[in-house]
Amino acid sequence: MLSTHYMFGFEQHTDDVATIDLQETSITNSTEIALDADWLFYWNELIEPSNFKPNKPFTKISLTNWTAFTHSNNENLPSFGYATYRLLISIPKERPHVSLYIPAAYAASKTWINGELISEIGRVGTSKDETLHRRFSQIIPLNTNETDFEIVIQVANFYHKKGGIDKPLILGASKLLLNKRSKQIMADMIFIGCLGFIGSFFLLFFLFYWNKDKAILYFAILCMSLSYMALSDRYAPFAEIFQSFSWIILTKFEYIILFLAGAAASLFFYSIFSNFVHKLYSKIIVYSFCLLALLAIFLPPPHFTKLLLPFLILMIIDLIYVYFVIMKTIIIGKRHESILLLVSMSLASIIFSVHIFFFLGKNGNAMIYVNFGYILVFLLLSMLLMTRFSNSFKELERAKEFALEQKKEISIQSNELSNVNLELKENLKNLKISNAELDGFNHIVSHDLKAPLIAMHTLVSFIEEDLDTTINTDVKNNFKLLKDRVSKMFALINGLLEYSKVTKGKKSKELFSLNNLLSEIRAVVDTQNEHIIHLPDEDLEIYTNKIELEHVFQNLLSNSIKHNDKNSALINISFSKLPNEYVFAVSDNGPGIDAKYHTKIFEMFSQLNVNDEVESTGIGLSIVKKIVYENHGIISVESEKGIGTTLKFSWRI
């Protein structure tokens, strides 16, 4: 065995090269030896086995990211660069067939064993343009006739924050290493195949069958993203198919898929617990992962490869919040989904811990069990989705049943409505007949009843004239009383006819001045100018049916004059404008009306004053009320006995 003396850093040393002596080591079919120490490291040099020179500067290292190594000036090596690794080992002649497992290096590599070029992954160069980045692990069988081996590996990295070989090479029985590789492939295919199938199933389920639940879409994206991540990380199929394609672009795409998986997982959780999650959660998640994706696209190497750490921090924070919300929903909401998701996440956490801290690399069957555990987690999540779908489907079925019941009720009600419509048509027909009869009755009243009254009044006048010189005073008074009764009956018939005509016929609207209208009415009701009628201080241009409004004001002013107990009536007219209507008021200085009669005065034939000197039919205010109501207004009275009366009515604009 050759002896050597060395120092860390790029320092000079003796010309001898140390060989790791494993001659005394028993190598069996279960032996695995990690070659992770005593490697000779040549920075920024690509040396082939035949070109190593005595006294060449080198350092002796343990295999790890070369950015952990330092120059003689105590500065760390950069991420980008190239180097040569060299190791000499000696193993016993009596041994089973052995192979060398070489892990994937960052990034292109070239391997010699005992001076023979064994493999070249990508293309090793001294610059980014010369280097074709690729990274794969490999198992290399060793010659059974040799015991001494020189391992030389050249590595070049111009894309990743890490550089070189960061995991140990494994020397072991070929059967053992190949068996572990087979089990690794089996575990990967179980994981990739099952997740790919689950993701594809739910994606198609969402697209073609049930797109009402976005959680299905997010879960499908999560499964397919993780399936692609596992496939790309282990086997890089696109790099194999497109051998000249940029590894940097493939890696950027892999990072984007990773961020997409994180976003899909978070949005999946949000879709299930949207009622319990803060309203800003979804926006924060989307914006955060979109930012990471944009940085991965636009940042140059090696900076975009540093995004893994913020992604993991974001996912840890997100996971803590998810656990918090799940516990809250279990305590408050008692939802079945909460318990199922909590079980799934707890199982995933346990499997991940076992994967990382116990089984990784120690047991060939462990990875199969671990991947089966991961698949179980996703099956539980699938069960959660199918439970949601089942509940939605049941609700839909209940809604359909309810809709059918409603349809039956509507059908019954429709039949009833048809019967009502038939009755309504019959009633309308009868109403038309009744209206025709009423019109005929009005005609009879206006002609057949009024004509005898006129004749009676004329006959009494003739008799009074014939007996003018022979009758005494009492008889004359009786004749006068008879004529007054006939006149009052005539006025009563005219009032009834007028009441029946209210709201009949087409109503025409026009724009006119209120004060002009009131001036005309004042001239009609106070022909001798015996009373004081104040018009509103401000004139109003109003668009409405002029005849109806004129009738209302004329009736109110006539009543204020007719029933006033003063020698001269004092009447004030005012108005106020509201958003959708006008409110008019007519106030007088009359005797007033007791509060108990405020509603009675609007009833048909109602008269508070039975004095025969006041000619009244008791129909006027009934007509006013009917006209006001037909114009979507209301009329009211404000009065106290002996203080005067104010009548207010509203009029829709």
Entry keywords:
653 residues; seven-stranded mixed beta sheet; five-stranded mixed beta sheet; 12 helices; 18 strands; 50% helix; rod-shaped
Descriptive account of the structure:
The protein is an alpha+beta fold and 653 residues long. 50% of the residues lie in helices and 16% in strands. The chain contains 12 helices and 18 strands. It has helices at 174-208, 214-235, 237-241, 247-272, 281-298, 308-333, 336-359, 366-466, 473-501, 514-525, 546-562, 620-630; strands at residues 20-21, 32-35, 39-43, 59-61, 81-90, 98-102, 108-113, 116-121, 138-141, 148-157, 169-173, 510-513, 532-534, 541-544, 570-577, 581-588, 635-640, 644-652. The strands form 4 sheets. Strands 1, 3, 4, 5, 7, 8 and 10 form a 7-stranded mixed β-sheet that branches. It has a 5-stranded mixed β-sheet with strand order 13-15-16-18-17. A 4-stranded antiparallel β-sheet has the order 2-11-6-9. α2 (214-235) runs antiparallel to α4 (247-272), α2 (214-235) runs antiparallel to α8 and α11 runs antiparallel to α12 (620-630).
Topology:
Layout: E1 20-21, E2 32-35, E3 39-43, E4 59-61, E5 81-90, E6 98-102, E7 108-113, E8 116-121, E9 138-141, E10 148-157, E11 169-173, H1 174-208, H2 214-235, H3 237-241, H4 247-272, H5 281-298, H6 308-333, H7 336-359, H8 366-466, H9 473-501, E12 510-513, H10 514-525, E13 532-534, E14 541-544, H11 546-562, E15 570-577, E16 581-588, H12 620-630, E17 635-640, E18 644-652
Parallel strand pairs: 1-5, 13-15
Antiparallel strand pairs: 2-11, 3-4, 3-5, 5-10, 6-9, 6-11, 7-8, 7-10, 12-14, 15-16, 16-18, 17-18
